[in-house]
């Protein structure tokens, strides 16, 4: 039986992988505690690889605080680039396939079209830059890798936009939400299912893939959908990016084309609103 090691298992996607692996009785998946699986600690990682001899490693570990990263380039780069590079080198040494998770924020997002894997990445934030450097480190150092770019993750676990909206909706009567940033929300449970599907149906077509839910929306329409589905009465005002100043600049348009992952792995992807309904049902 193959062993799969998950790094960053205590984060949002890590929790979703645990939930889906349990649900589908996925065998041989291990979630080592962060104390034993710090992706910056090559010695500890080597011990783990020697012990478990994994066929797959899934890297969910990341520095994900987008605004904070603007003041913490070194800290973000350490985890997002150096950590990914450490895992890539060990995977090559131990003949393991690395599944690296990346982001739509590697794109500048100035062209209103569905982005595919060959479109040029040109990040406009420190977080996006360090995630792109992580992708490049993986491509350069892992002989077998699937690098999956995803976007706007949410779930019942960790911190995310859906939970923030529900929290704010409980004690505010009005909210201003940016309407001129467009992309696709992704239920992290769906992504976790897709990752385990790839492990189960590995056809060695290594490289970069895009995965989000289907459809395109703005943060404003996403928020309206959240309150509508959760039956929360609140006034939501559409605003421009310039009316909601943040440290990091975010792409205006970062919806991705998923044709490659769907055809390569025979995957079907749920529409974003259907998955949002499923998540809110879990949350309630
Ligand atoms: N969240 C989102 O909207 C999106 C996320 N992504 C990508 O998806 C992946 C998963 O994101 P998500 O689960 O939401 O992120 P989280 O921030 O929820 O989880 C990241 C996890 O990584 C852990 N971590 C940080 N540094 C290290 C380290 N040195 N060694 C081991 N673990 C570490 C964190 O632990 P601790 O909390 O203790 O620091 C945390 O548990 C990331 O690669 C992210 O860049 C892509 C698009 C959208
Ligand atoms: C809370 C709030 C946010 N917003 C806007 C700010 C921002 O443009 C957008 C989302 O804000 P958040 O800070 O929740 O999301 P953010 O952390 O920017 O989300 C990103 O995280 C990283 C990790 C990724 O990889 C990306 O794909 C993306 O999911 O909503 C409002 O307009 N009004 C509000 O009240």
From TrEMBL:
<dbReference type="Pfam" id="PF04321">
    <property type="entry name" value="RmlD_sub_bind"/>
</dbReference>
<dbReference type="InterPro" id="IPR036291">
    <property type="entry name" value="NAD(P)-bd_dom_sf"/>
</dbReference>
<keyword id="KW-0560">Oxidoreductase</keyword>
<comment type="pathway">
    <text>Carbohydrate biosynthesis; dTDP-L-rhamnose biosynthesis.</text>
</comment>
<dbReference type="GO" id="GO:0008831">
    <property type="term" value="F:dTDP-4-dehydrorhamnose reductase activity"/>
</dbReference>
<comment type="similarity">
    <text>Belongs to the dTDP-4-dehydrorhamnose reductase family.</text>
</comment>
<feature type="domain" description="RmlD-like substrate binding">
    <location>
        <begin position="4"/>
        <end position="283"/>
    </location>
</feature>
<comment type="function">
    <text>Catalyzes the reduction of dTDP-6-deoxy-L-lyxo-4-hexulose to yield dTDP-L-rhamnose.</text>
</comment>
<dbReference type="InterPro" id="IPR005913">
    <property type="entry name" value="dTDP_dehydrorham_reduct"/>
</dbReference>
<keyword id="KW-0521">NADP</keyword>
<protein>
    <recommendedName>
        <fullName>dTDP-4-dehydrorhamnose reductase</fullName>
        <ecNumber>1.1.1.133</ecNumber>
    </recommendedName>
</protein>
<dbReference type="InterPro" id="IPR029903">
    <property type="entry name" value="RmlD-like-bd"/>
</dbReference>
């Amino acid at each position: 039986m193959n062993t799969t090691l998950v790094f960053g298992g205590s984060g949002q996607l890590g929790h979703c992988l645990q939930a889906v692996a349990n649900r589908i009785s996925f065998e041989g998946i291990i979630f080592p505690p962060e104390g034993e699986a710090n992706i910056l600690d090559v010695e500890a990682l080597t011990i783990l690889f020697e012990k478990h001899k994994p066929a797959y490693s899934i890297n969910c570990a990341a520095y994900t605080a987008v605004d904070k990263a603007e003041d913490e380039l070194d800290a973000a780069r350490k985890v997002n680039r150096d950590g990914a590079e450490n895992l890539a080198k060990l995977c090559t040494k131990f003949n393991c396939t690395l599944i690296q998770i990346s982001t739509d924020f590697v794109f500048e997002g100035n062209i209103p079209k569905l982005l595919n894997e060959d479109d040029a990445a040109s990040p406009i934030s420190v977080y996006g830059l360090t995630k792109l450097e992580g992708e490049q480190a993986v491509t350069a150092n892992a002989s077998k890798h699937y690098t999956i770019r995803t976007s706007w993750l949410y779930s019942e676990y960790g911190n995310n936009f859906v939970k923030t909206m529900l929290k704010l909706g409980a004690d505010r009567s009005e909210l201003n939400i940016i309407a001129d940033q467009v992309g696709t929300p992704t239920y992290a449970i769906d992504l976790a299912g897709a990752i385990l599907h790839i492990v189960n149906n590995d056809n060695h077509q290594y490289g970069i893939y895009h995965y989000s839910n289907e459809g395109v929306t703005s943060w404003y329409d996403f928020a309206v959908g959240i309150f509508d589905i959760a039956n929360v009465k609140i006034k939501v005002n559409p605003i421009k990016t310039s009316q909601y100043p943040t440290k990091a600049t975010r792409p205006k348009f970062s919806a991705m084309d998923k044709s490659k992952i769907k055809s390569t792995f025979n995957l079907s992807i749920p529409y974003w609103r259907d998955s949002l309904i499923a998540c809110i049902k879990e949350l309630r």
